[in-house]
């Protein structure tokens, strides 16, 4: 490797020879397969689609149009299959007694559960039959609002089994956020639990669901998993004790035949404008892609124990706790707890306890744990680990080095995987036996992925290898989202309008002289808080919904642990006193409107916001102030009232 250019001075880290010796893909194979995948996608994916079991094999592979106004994405379109049968039934012949899911509860004193493929099959069938008994049929939507318990995976697969479309709402979201998603997807059923334990505390999920359902059609049924046994109110005729019903339901449920392009799930995600949008993933292409990336990126070998620490409420949990691993007949760990409870050694204790081979987490978790020193890591036997993964945000070199040295002991390749809810699976990531890592770089594209770097303003394609601009993808891959639920226009406008002929990721990036990609973060009004995506517009609209708030503008700022923090500028209604109580009240308000992850870290009272003469808020200026970089505010002369900036700079909250 040559070291040239401003970004690739970083040292490269090839995988250790012992790792390479048994790696699934080596450097030469990567180059050959990559060339084949972009050279003839039909032939390449036609072959790799065969990793699934199809009811009716496909004869067409790729049928894609990225032209704005005509965007249409189809893969394997005339094939039929069942996703649950691929993730469960087809493994029964060879690995019925192998553990499919290891469930590690929040409280380490509660025993873990080991669920074999045979048991998984039975539970999924029972849950599917319960859904059927509630009138759920193919194409219906089911909202899942559950803690990280095996029932969440059963519910996902039960939907897939009967061809219903699930939409998981992260258990940290509020009643209002849940209601919006139930209504937008017109779901027939909500599956929830009495309570969600996390870090020794309990969230009253069912009572959130009760509050949400007041805002929904009274036809929506509520299936309740009695998980902690905590008290809940019970609405006769609407609420159903799902575990009790499962115990009577038949353990047999034939899988429904679905088309490759029938939706598998909808997952709501934040964008730069408006309410979160329902990202639609379909059955065939998504599963091929999730399974293949899971196997090759994590170098998964049969018998390995794989642990992705995400929540199933995010896409990472969909693709790399449930669908990818189970499609590969893997053993996947599902963890209910948090990294720092009962102490900062919990992740490592779980790795040692279950002899985890591949461990996949977010940089924010690493940074949070670094603050506790190395003792909690060194206490545990991590010798089972072979590979580490990172996802959700760029990993800073300090965190990378700590992860590499103290967790991986210098023996585990680190795969920094760049992808999005929209992409279904990894797009830019090292294949560990093939591509040496550079700390902070997601490295090179996965098979079939054609990243391009464009000039942000002009949209001009930058041909040179070393490049900096916005990251787009020039052609489709099977895991790509197909549409926004109920709004294909919005899908096209969001991803295909600005840079014609390309999928626009919303991220900026640099490509170094070695062709490695370095993601520099969002170029739109989306912020990344602890690896969670948050639209600034969402937080703003929650704030202005408060009757004491006249106006609000929200931006991100660098945060030591979270990556980015939420900085809110709030203009109060005339005559309202800015007090500490009000600040607290607004924090609680946003938590209630959206959920704890949206709580502003800093709220600054703003007598006025910097606006252009046409009334547009100058976010660039607000970002600079929040970043404590008032020195480079640039030209403020076009502002309607340049004086407001001085006040904001003087009273900024981020003085650190
Ligand atoms: O900005 C990128 C960042 O997370 C965004 C996608 O967020 P979400 O849809 O919630 O999915 C997160 C998990 C896949 C991207 O647009 N991002 C994700 N992974 C990385 C990353 N930024 C840098 N490096 C990564 N490895």
TrEMBL record:
Annotated Pfam families: ACAS_N, AMP-binding, AMP-binding_C
Q: Which principal EC class is assigned to this enzyme?
A: ligase
Presence of keyword Ligase: yes
List the coiled-coil residues.
Answer: none
Q: Which GO terms describe its biological process?
A: acetyl-CoA biosynthetic process from acetate
Keyword Amino-acid biosynthesis present in the record's keywords: the answer is no
**Domain AMP-binding enzyme C-terminal, residue spans:** 538-616
PTM comment: Acetylated. Deacetylation by the SIR2-homolog deacetylase activates the enzyme.
Query: Which residues of the sequence carry a binding annotation for CoA?
Result: 198-201, 316, 530, 591
Q: Which reaction does it catalyse?
A: acetate + ATP + CoA = acetyl-CoA + AMP + diphosphate
EC annotation? 6.2.1.1
Q: Which residues carry this modification: N6-acetyllysine?
A: 616
Task: Enumerate the residues binding Mg(2+).
Answer: 544, 546, 549
Cofactor(s) recorded in Swiss-Prot or TrEMBL? Mg(2+)
Which CDD domains has this protein been placed in?
ACS
Binding, ATP? 392-394, 416-421, 507, 522, 533
Please list the residue ranges annotated as the AMP-dependent synthetase/ligase domain.
89-476
Q: What does this protein do?
A: Catalyzes the conversion of acetate into acetyl-CoA (AcCoA), an essential intermediate at the junction of anabolic and catabolic pathways. AcsA undergoes a two-step reaction. In the first half reaction, AcsA combines acetate with ATP to form acetyl-adenylate (AcAMP) intermediate. In the second half reaction, it can then transfer the acetyl group from AcAMP to the sulfhydryl group of CoA, forming the product AcCoA.
Record's NCBIfam families?
Ac_CoA_lig_AcsA (TIGR02188), PRK00174.1 (NF001208)
Q: What's the protein name? A: Acetyl-coenzyme A synthetase
């Amino acid at each position: 490797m040559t070291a040239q250019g401003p970004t690739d001075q970083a040292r490269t880290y090839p995988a250790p020879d012992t790792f390479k010796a048994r790696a699934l893909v080596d450097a030469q194979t990567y180059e050959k397969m990559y060339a084949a995948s972009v050279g003839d996608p039909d032939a390449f994916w036609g072959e790799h689609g065969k990793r699934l079991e199809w009811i009716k094999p496909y004869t067409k592979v790729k049928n894609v149009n990225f032209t704005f106004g005509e965007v249409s994405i189809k893969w394997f379109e005339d094939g039929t299959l069942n996703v649950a049968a691929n993730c469960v039934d087809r493994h029964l012949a060879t690995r019925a007694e192998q553990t499919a899911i290891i469930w590690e509860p929040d409280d380490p004193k509660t025993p873990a559960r080991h669920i074999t493929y045979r048991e998984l099959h039975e539970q999924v069938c029972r849950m599917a039959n319960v859904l059927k008994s509630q009138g759920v049929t193919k194409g219906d939507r089911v909202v899942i609002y559950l803690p990280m318990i095996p029932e969440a995976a059963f519910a996902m697969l039960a939907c897939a089994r009967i061809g219903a479309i699930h939409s998981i709402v992260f258990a940290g979201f509020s009643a209002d956020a849940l209601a919006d998603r139930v209504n937008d997807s017109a779901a027939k059923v909500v599956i929830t639990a009495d309570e969600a334990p996390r870090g020794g505390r309990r969230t009253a999920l069912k009572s959130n669901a009760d509050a949400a359902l007041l805002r929904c059609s009274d036809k929506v049924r509520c299936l309740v998993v009695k998980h902690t046994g905590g008290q809940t109110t019970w609405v006769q005729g609407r609420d159903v004790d799902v575990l009790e019903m499962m115990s009577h339901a038949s353990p047999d449920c034939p899988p429904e035949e679905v088309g490759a392009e029938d939706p598998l799930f909808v997952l709501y995600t934040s964008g730069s404008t408006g309410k979160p949008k329902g990202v639609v993933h379909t059955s065939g292409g998504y599963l091929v892609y999730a399974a293949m990336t899971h196997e090759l990126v994590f170098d998964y070998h049969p018998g390995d124990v794989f642990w992705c620490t995400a929540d199933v409420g995010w896409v990472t949990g969909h693709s790399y706790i449930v669908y990818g691993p189970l499609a590969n007949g893997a053993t996947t760990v599902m963890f209910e707890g948090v990294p720092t409870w009962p102490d900062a050694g919990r992740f490592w204790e779980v790795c040692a306890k279950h002899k985890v081979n591949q461990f996949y987490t977010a940089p924010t978790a690493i940074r949070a744990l670094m603050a506790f020193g190395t003792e909690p890591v060194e206490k545990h036997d991590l010798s089972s680990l072979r590979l580490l993964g990172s996802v959700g945000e760029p990993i800073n070199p300090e965190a990378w080095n700590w992860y590499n040295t103290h967790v991986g002991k210098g023996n585990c390749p680190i795969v920094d995987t760049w992808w999005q809810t929209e992409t279904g699976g990894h797009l830019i990531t090292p294949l560990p036996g093939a591509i040496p890592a550079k700390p902070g770089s997601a490295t090179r594209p996965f098979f079939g992925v054609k990243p391009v770097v464009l000039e942000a303003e002009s949209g001009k394609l930058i041909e040179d290898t070393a490049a900096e601009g916005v990251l787009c993808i020039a052609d489709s891959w099977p895991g790509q989202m197909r549409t926004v639920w109920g709004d294909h226009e919005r899908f096209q406008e969001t991803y295909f309008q600005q840079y014609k002929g390309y999928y626009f990721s919303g991220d900026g990036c640099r490509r170094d002289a070695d062709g490695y990609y370095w993601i520099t973060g969002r170029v739109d009004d989306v912020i990344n808080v602890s690896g969670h995506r948050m639209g600034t517009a969402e937080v703003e609209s929650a704030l202005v919904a408060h009757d004491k708030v006249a106006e609000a503008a929200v931006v991100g700022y660098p945060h030591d642990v979270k990556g980015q923090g939420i900085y809110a500028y709030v203009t109060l209604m005339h005559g309202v006193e800015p007090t500490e109580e009000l600040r607290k009240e607004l924090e609680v308000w946003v938590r209630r409107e959206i959920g704890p992850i949206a709580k502003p870290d800093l709220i600054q009272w703003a007598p006025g916001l910097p606006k252009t003469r046409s009334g547009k808020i100058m976010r660039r200026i607000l970002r600079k102030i929040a970043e404590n970089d008032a020195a480079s505010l640039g030209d403020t002369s076009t502002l309607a009232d340049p004086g407001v900036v001085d006040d904001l700079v003087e009273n900024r909250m981020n003085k650190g």
